[in-house]
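STRUCTURE REQUEST FORM
Protein name: 3-hydroxy-acyl-CoA dehydrogenase
Source organism: Paramagnetospirillum caucaseum
Requested output: structure tokens
Priority: standard
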Amino acid sequence: MSLDAARSDLILGLVGTGTMGRGIAQIAVAAGVTVILVDALPGAAAKARDAVAGMLAKLAEKGKLSAEACAAATSRLKLGESLADLAPVHVVVEAIVEDIAVKQSLMKELEAVVAADCLIATNTSSLSVTSIAAGCRLPGRVGGFHFFNPVPLMKVVEVIGGVMTEGWVVEALTALARRMGHAPVKAKDTPGFIVNHAGRGYGTEALKLVGEGVADFAAADRILKGAAGFRMGPFELLDLTALDVSHPVMESIYDQYYQEPRFRPSPITRSRLAAGLLGRKTGRGFYAYDGDKAVVPP
Ligand code: NAI
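Status: completed
Returned output:
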């Protein structure tokens, strides 16, 4: 099998139109790919289409995209009512909840709809691509395509081949990433791949540091940005990613490494998740948000 990622009539199905799905849809339509948006939550795909159209319009206002290119990209955003509308797509990218059972069940539903040569990619942050594909009729067509938030600005993507992934899938995802202006980096199918494995040294250690009372979270952010040169502090990053995504990622990496102590998640994120302090998306995480402005809550 093969997929010509450069074909001008490429159609991509995007399942899960939250933070990541929107970003992926934006870079895809900007690169001339038609995108069909599908979400399990009624109204969510339409909301996502409007949000992506708004982002493209902003780029046009700033002169980063011509008016014609903006109109053409926006016209390539299509709404799907259900997975059944993905029958014509050449490639599907899923960006739904980070839960292995839910992703596995989505794979089965997708396989019942799409063509036998359709590539299926998962944007999972931490789960095993091999396990996500395990129940598939054709697991060889499933690969990892792990973008970073915010997708249009973070111009790198991890391309992951699982145990059963066929070579053409990795090659096609690599080519598709380049077409969308992103630099692909190949990674082995291991817990957290590259970034979320190495990132434990940043996020998990910073949480330990705060848990041990070495510094408060805002001080840790300030010093890690100012002295260590990171663009965002670990707590700013947790607020951007949102704890309903990052805490399960931390748990999943810990479990997949057989409770390796250095990956142990923090009770701090578990209790803040339970309290609904997810981050920017709920208006309060470690910081409180007034639009884009972050303040330290009293
Ligand atoms: P999100 O919560 O913003 O969006 C998830 C969307 O999926 C929601 O619109 C929800 O209604 C929909 N959904 C949930 N279950 C569904 C199902 N069974 N079928 C169809 N739609 C369904 O989540 P976000 O942040 O976009 O994350 C999505 C995926 O991307 C996760 O696997 C996450 O680990 C991964 N990821 C997240 C990053 C981040 O910084 N937020 C970074 C890189 C990867």
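Reviewer notes: The domain at 11-188 is CATH 3.40.50.720 (Rossmann fold). The chain is about 40% helix and 15% strand.
Form closed.
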